[in-house]
Design brief:
alpha+beta, 3 helices, 15% helix, 129 residues, homodimer, four-stranded mixed sheet
Chain lengths: 129, 129
């Protein structure tokens, strides 16, 4: 029904990788996966929906936390096998409380990845209430 | 040998998604995949290496075009199943001549994705000489 979506290349599981980026400062917020239904829901509602591989179902990003991602632009790449969505992020994207899921940096010689961000919210307060 | 790499989660094919971002302006340049060897080579050389699924081998990004990606920071996400590398990009990332592979935007109601970037180089001149 939507010829632009027909041209996207989904993988053997019917999924396409999604990168979500903050439209205001360019920060990469998270990576997830979408199936065709997730893209259609995202376009129809203006809020990012993903296909949750762990839960095996469509998921509205922010459905537990109310930290929604408001769609500003939807892009795809040269091969049309990745989707990039620029969003306005409510509060923070990461379920661990960070603005971005990419809060760990490689430190040469270290035993563990280094946390390079500070928390934007307390996940215990948001998810357990 | 490297405890930080030991903590990364590779998929059933031994791969982990890689997002490459321009360190200067935050532009998402491309998505690719790495195996453990690609990450080790990237860390050892300071230039992004990927695992090319189409060619079935390790690939130095820019090996044909000399458009290398110089590593400035390597990050991973909360689940440690995605890698994000911030780079200084030589010339452009996309083999179609665009600075970023994400040069197509969704246009509501249109038949085709809209090209929203201009070419940084002529791919015919770079790849066929």
């Amino acid at each position: 029904m939507d010829p632009q979506l027909d041209k996207l290349k989904f993988d053997r599981d019917g999924l396409i990788p999604l990168i979500v980026q903050d439209v205001d400062n360019g920060e990469v917020l998270m990576m997830a996966y979408m199936n065709r239904e997730a893209i259609e829901k995202t376009l129809a509602t203006g809020k990012v929906h993903t296909y949750s591989r762990s839960r095996g179902r469509l998921a509205l990003k922010g459905e537990s936390s109310a930290h929604f991602q408001h769609v500003k632009q939807v892009l795809t790449d040269c091969d049309r096998d990745v989707v990039l969505i620029k969003v306005v992020q409510d509060v923070a994207a990461c379920h661990e409380g960070y603005r971005s899921c990419f809060f760990r940096a490689y430190e040469p010689g270290a035993a563990e990845w280094k946390t390079v961000a500070t928390k934007a919210f307390d996940p215990d307060a948001v998810y357990k209430k």
